[in-house]
Each structure stands twice: as C-alpha cells, then as structure tokens.
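INFO batch 0412 | record 1 of 1 | parsing
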Amino acid sequence: MVERPDSRTDNTQLRAFSASQNILNRADGSAKFEFGATSVITSVNGPIDVSLRDEKLDEATIEVVVRPPKGVSTTKEKLMENTLRTAFAPIILAGMMPRTLIQIVVQILKDDGSVLAAAANSIALALLDAGVPMRQMVGSVTCMIDEKTMDLILDPTTIELENAKSVHTFAFDNGKTSKNALLSDSEGVFSEEEYFSSCDLCYEAVHKVHGFLRTAVESKKEKEMN
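INFO prediction complete | emitting tokens
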C-alpha cells in the first residue's frame, strides 16, 4: 500500500471531485471545478460582438484568458491559454456563430497540482452552462513520473510534483469509438514509452471525470426543472 501526502493509498487514485455551475451572475455561463484542494472557476460569455481585428467571416473567434491566484499573468498562464484554446477550438461548433466572440476566462483560485486538467474540466462545464454548442464533452486528467521510483502517479499534488521527472496532462472527448486526445501537454524528461504509458493511464482514469461531469450537469438540470 502506498501512502500519499493527502492520504490516498494508491498511485492510480484520483482526488475527490467537486463541481458547480451557474455561479456568476454577470456571465452567460460559469462553473467551478476542484481536484482536492486545486480549485478553478471559469466564466463564459458569448456569442458576443467581436472586434473587427479579430473577426472571422465563417466562424466564431475563441478567446481564452487565464488569471493566476494572485498578481498578474506570467508566461505560465499565457502558455495555458494557448494550450486550452487549441484543445477547445476544434470541439466548439464555431461555424454556427460566425462574426462573434466566445470569451472564456479562467480564474485559478488555488493550485495544488493538476491545475491545467482542472481548468479544462471547468471550461467544459462553463461552456455547457452557457449553451455554447459543442461536438463532444471534454474530460482531463494529469499524471507524473516519479524521479526516484519511476512510478506513474495519477493526479499529483504540489508536494508530489517536487519529485517529478515529467508531468503529463491529457484531455479526451467522451466518444466511445477511439482514444481521441484533444489536449496533450508534457514537461520534463521522458521516453516515448513513458509518454504513451502516461497517456494510457490518463485515458483509463478520464471516464471517471466524464461520468462525474455528466452527473453534475444532470443534477443542475433536475434542479432547474423542479
């Protein structure tokens, strides 16, 4: 049995999930998602007017802004913005909303590991809450490879990340036919075999995220109908 810093007893165990939707009054859609102590809140506005500079004639413009818990955005947040925009642009049905803007703002409340995955899950819920049409649902998970033991560790905390040889975040759609990675973000030193092992582990775990997101949406709809 493995003892992890947050009392988990298995390297392939995810932390407890928490999610809520429609929590910001001035946004078209909003959602909060948590992996343990890691907490992210996302607002979505759109389709709204877009500036002439950013306007696209045949589809909506997708904008992603990531804000850190404190202070101004750094290179880390800018990289997250690009990664998340690249992941979500293909699944948003932007062609249905030409010459408009879909604005996604991600506020990191606390980063205790797996913050990119939490942000992706938060965006997915916020887009649904805003009624933005999407091809499929997205779920995301992070894992790391321990520098000393070479073990694969799912959903690492910041304490565990201090001993990481490499860190890998993947997002997959909820399609049943194939393993379709919408997001693949890796840092550190790793072999091709280690990369694909990390991908497989995250893919095996992401169905739990998909199931949780689906339950969260269904629960919200039931409350609205009652």
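INFO post-check: The longest helix spans residues 192-225.
INFO record closed
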